[in-house]
Amino acid sequence: MSPASFTKHYAEPERAAGAVRHYRWLTAHAKPLRQPALHTAGPRFLTFERIAGRPVRPEDLPRVAELLGHAHGAAWASDLHSASLDTPHHFEDGTQFDDYLGPRKIALRRRHEQGYLPNKTALHAMLGLLQATAEGPCAFYKDSNPRNFIITAQDIVAVDTDDLSLAPLGYDLAKLIATLHLTYGPLSDQAVTTALLAYNAAARRYDARLGTTDRGQLDSFLGLHAVLTAPYVGRNGYHYSLPLRFTHRGAS
């Protein structure tokens, strides 16, 4: 392996193949995202260009939010304008691009089984919240946490394409906000609002229907992420927790 390369290993060939498929889709349809060059794709490993830099910090949030807005807008214009949040999309080779609702319903039920949701009432509230957020144009979710971007002296580079699914606009921005909170502690209300404004302004450049995520929608996404990320508190550099809320828009 060259000193300028980084190799990621996978337990199953299917995971490696999926990461390559996601990488190529993002390269084709989310052109504003710079990714490291993919040098080699083996059956259980991928070798990438090594990028020197650091993970995202809270002060980087407006820049990364703007980048996500551009990436989501470009992907919608290129491919996702015909997608629906409750129906799997498909890659060029016919393999499935997971929908928004199905995998998250499974994940929320698993959180209930694991004890992160205290009872079935809380589970039903979170399932209702999930359903209420499944509206509007489609974006993609790539697990935007601070480690999945590298801040360099000149650029922001997106790494790790293990996860990719459909999601509403703003959902992956909420993941970044949630995981910055988990890593560094609560962000100020002004920091969150500034990031949302930057995201919306960038997305809106691709179509007038984009870039309309409001603070209520963002808070709903944060409520979902609080439950979905709960098992990782205390791991992966997540030293803080997000408050769990078991109501959704329109509920008493």
UniProtKB/TrEMBL annotation:
GO MF annotation terms: transferase activity
Domain of life according to the entry: Bacteria
Annotated keywords: Transferase
Domain Aminoglycoside phosphotransferase: 12-197
Alphabetized InterPro entries for the sequence: Aminoglycoside_PTrfase, Kinase-like_dom_sf
Name used for this protein in its record: Phosphotransferase
Species, as recorded: Streptomyces nanshensis
